[in-house]
Amino acid sequence: MPVQRPSPSLLPWAATAARLLLGVVFLVAGALKVPDPAAAERAVRAYQLLPEALVPLAAFGLPVLEVAVGLALLVGVAVRAAALGAAVLLVVYLAAIVSAWARGLQIDCGCFSSGGTVAQGQTAYPWDVARDLALLAVAAALARWPRSRLALGGRDLPTAAPTRTETSRAH
Amino acid sequence: MPTDHRPLSGRAAAQQRIAARRAAESAARQAAERRHRQLVGAVVTAVLLVVAVVVVVAVQSSRTSTAADAATPAGTTGGYAFAVGQADAPVTVQLYEDYQCPNCKAFEDAAGSTLEQLVAAGTVRVEYHGMAFLDTSGNDRYSTRALNAAAVVASTAGTDALERFHDLLYANQPAEGGSGLTDEQLVSYAQQAGATGATVSRQITDLTYGDWVAGATEQASKDGVTGTPTVFVDGERLGDLSAAGVTAAVTAAQAG
User: Fold this and answer.
1) What is the ipTM of this complex?
2) Residue limits of the Methylamine utilisation protein MauE domain (chain A) (predicted)?
């Protein structure tokens, strides 16, 4: 059996916090786009990046991926893959937001709302970009150190070694 | 008695080597099995995700597609707009508005009378493109009900009545986040605008053109409209939404 290196006791808890943060953000962001499909399409269309034929795929498919990533992170299965998925999604969103900003489009990012529509001077690009960059950093860190507490999956759970003191403290 | 520190006999050393090799083989086998399980898990997850995406795209697409037999109002221009003014007016102004949108009211207050003068002078033909994206449960889908009512008025009493109804709704716009106008109020304003009769009242209450409203909103989005009010003067997006801005853009369009 490979010997498990003792890790600093705080790192798995930080990973749990990262999982919960990203998981909630992605689950909520995905779920909010489901009730009003027409609004989701308008939000995608507002970016003026995709041909009309691909708009439904992005508007309806991306929330599925967001919910899947969010659920995986929340319960703690396939954490590294889910964190990488979150990072890929965030890079795509960042590129889209920055491109809309650069083109001077007056749109809402549609990240957590129906998006698309915004009054002149009401755009929030700096905040959107800062938030997504922060989330991207969290996702990257989680992909690098995916081991965490209170996770359902993963063969290298620290809790698999019940004799260690940090584990007993966790209970 | 031999102790652990003494060299092992050849037989014992051989047994130990065999045991070590077996342990290594077992570990390698377990690692291979784990990799295999991970691969299977990844493939299964990918397939499930693709299936989920396909199913959700299909379901959501069916939710957004409007019925083929959706009722459409009479007298539209291009299916989803109502035009006011002379057909041979040199300049066309396309107006994308939502009856619940406060900035649309601000635009109407600032430039509405200027536009009407330009229409009366025969310079401008205005196309009213409705959108309904500010529906909430709190306002009982006021955006949709108001645009449906506007379609009813235009369909039964013509576009001049629509223009009056349009001005009445902006003059009496309910606060955003409020409860919206009631169907009875919409019927009352329709009558004031000149659309009377039981049919008008019934079509406003029944949301007869509800699917058409969804189609109009969809079409506006496809037209590149991402917010309201959006104004195009002869196809050029208007940046300055003041009376002076409208006048200048119309003058420029006329000269060009």
Assistant:
1) 0.79
2) 12-142
